[in-house]
């Protein structure tokens, strides 16, 4: 008799979200991550301030939401994680694109966990302001103990311990499944994140100099709209913020019931994510305004306005100077930890789901086997004295080369090579309240690959010609291009490996082109639960 894992892998009852609210919270939890807090405010400030909101909204509507819908359609129609869904969409050769996305998520999960461990450490440090009067020296020297570029096995206990804790929590959640694990974690952490960050923003607005910080962020520089790089920055921010094009939303959509609205919740997710980014901008720049006021300088004279520097150097310095600093630090780093953790779950679920379906594993088996390997590699690479440098380089290549290449390949292969645009639009319109027209196919098939292709080429040329930072070329080849090599090689190997069942014994719903329907859209009642289309053998 087949085990439950084998029955599920072979097309038995598929895990599902308990309802639309659970899916929406999980999708928002995935989208709202570290980048919302430490990337958007700085990108907006450096690219026109208030004027940046115009290209930002244009990018959201013309690329972010259309590609989000594309991911939803692929995952929901073909009922699987990225490798399964792409195989069912285009055949065995396209399965490799799914594994390419899984490998990207695998790599990101290794180092993203380390950043959450840092945030967790700083949450504890906030109680006694342990970084003292030199936050930069504390972060780089005492906390991370950063050494020269290379590969070290000299572990840093202050990083190792919280990193192990984060991995244990993540694997417990993943092993509990979609409804009892991932969904429940988002139901708990996402409201806590919003409440904590709202309290932080309200406190920041009443600090001396807060108005100057907000003026620096929102005063529009209309001339910036004539700079193509500003528009590229807007598309880049939207693209990286929405968790699209590397398997997350394909996987999440595959756990939705057949009777599920897709486009309406997609709009909720997209605009909720953007709303949180703007909220983060208000909180961050109100706080930076206070810091500038304390220093007696203008906001534009401050350093460390984005990324790791903003979160772990600039903000600790601010916390040390403000009234009630420990409470503010606890709220900030608590928010950073929760935002990172909900996003991490979605990244790891991509990997877990791919292996579950390929090898007939249940969630607990996948969490133990795949998660143990991931955790071990994460600890070896990112809890040592060379962890910060490895993390920075791997992140640059995985995001700016790996994910963007994945998006270009997906849009070109699905829309132009396989000509699946009309079928996927039909699927979305069949189950959704917000209907899509032919413009959606044009945005996904023309605008998205053109803009993203330009971003990809520009970034590759820059990395080859200019390098990255002051790091030696051999290190960039080993860690940066080595990351891409691992992703590609892993995708090839996993595509060749035999399945534990026949993934091609599957029938999609609704039928396309529709037959015998008199031209009407299929009703939900046409596909009662338990019929082919939920993943059963045909």
TrEMBL record:
Transmembrane segments: 21-40, 52-75, 96-125, 155-175, 187-210, 230-255, 267-293, 327-355, 367-391, 397-418, 439-461, 473-497
Topology within the bilayer: Multi-pass membrane protein
Subcellular location per the Swiss-Prot or TrEMBL entry: Membrane
Keywords, ordered alphabetically: Membrane, Transmembrane, Transmembrane helix, Transport
GO cellular component: membrane
Region (Disordered) location: 515-538
Protein's name in the database: Sodium-dependent transporter
């Amino acid at each position: 008799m087949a085990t439950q894992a084998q029955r599920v892998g072979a097309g038995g009852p598929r895990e599902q979200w308990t309802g639309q609210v659970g899916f929406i919270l999980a999708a928002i939890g995935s989208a709202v991550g570290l980048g919302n807090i430490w990337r958007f405010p700085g990108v907006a400030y450096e690219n026109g301030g208030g004027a940046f909101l115009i290209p930002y909204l244009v990018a959201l509507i013309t690329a972010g939401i259309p590609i989000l819908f594309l991911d939803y359609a692929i995952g929901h129609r073909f009922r699987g994680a990225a490798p399964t869904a792409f195989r069912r969409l285009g055949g065995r050769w396209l399965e490799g694109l799914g594994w390419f996305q899984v490998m990207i998520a695998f790599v990101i999960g290794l180092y993203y966990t380390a950043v959450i461990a840092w945030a967790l450490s700083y949450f504890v440090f906030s109680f006694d302001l342990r970084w003292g009067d030199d936050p930069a020296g504390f972060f780089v020297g005492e906390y991370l103990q950063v050494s020269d570029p290379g590969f070290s096995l000299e572990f840093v206990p202050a990083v190792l311990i919280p990193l192990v804790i984060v991995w244990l929590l993540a694997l417990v959640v993943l092993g509990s499944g979609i409804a009892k694990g991932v969904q429940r974690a988002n139901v708990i952490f996402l409201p806590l994140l919003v409440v904590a960050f709202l309290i932080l923003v309200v406190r920041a607005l009443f600090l001396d100099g807060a108005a100057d910080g907000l003026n620096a962020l929102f005063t529009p520089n209309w001339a910036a709209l004539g700079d193509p790089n500003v528009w590229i920055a807007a598309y880049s921010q939207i693209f990286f913020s929405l968790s699209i094009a590397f398997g997350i939303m394909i996987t999440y959509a595959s756990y939705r019931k057949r009777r599920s609205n897709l486009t309406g919740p997609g709009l909720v997710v997209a605009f909720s994510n953007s709303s949180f980014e703007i909220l983060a901008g208000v909180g961050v720049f109100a706080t930076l305004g206070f810091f500038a006021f304390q220093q007696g300088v203008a906001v534009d004279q401050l350093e460390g306005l984005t990324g790791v520097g903003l979160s772990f150097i600039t903000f600790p310095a601010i916390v040390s100077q403000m009234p009630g600093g420990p409470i503010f630090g606890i709220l900030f780093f608590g928010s950073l930890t929760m935002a990172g953790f909900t996003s991490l779950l979605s990244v790891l679920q991509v990997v877990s789901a791919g292996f579950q379906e390929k090898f007939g594993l249940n969630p607990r088996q996948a969490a133990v086997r795949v998660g143990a390997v991931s955790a071990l590699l994460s600890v070896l690479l990112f809890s040592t004295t060379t962890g910060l440098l490895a993390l920075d380089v791997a992140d640059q290549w995985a995001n700016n080369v790996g994910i963007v290449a994945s998006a270009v390949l997906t849009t070109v292969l699905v829309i132009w090579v396989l000509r699946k645009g009309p079928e996927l639009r039909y699927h979305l319109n069949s189950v959704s309240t917000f209907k899509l027209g032919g413009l959606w196919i044009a945005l996904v098939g023309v605008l998205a690959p053109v803009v993203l292709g330009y971003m990809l080429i520009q970034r590759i040329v820059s990395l080859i010609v200019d390098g990255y930072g002051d790091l030696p070329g051999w290190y960039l080849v080993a860690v940066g291009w080595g990351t891409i090599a691992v992703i590609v090689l892993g995708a090839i190997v996993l595509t060749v490996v035999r399945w534990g069942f026949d993934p091609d014994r599957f029938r999609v719903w609704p039928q396309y082109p529709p037959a015998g329907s008199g031209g009407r859209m299929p009703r939900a009642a046409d596909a009662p639960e338990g019929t082919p289309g939920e993943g059963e053998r045909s």
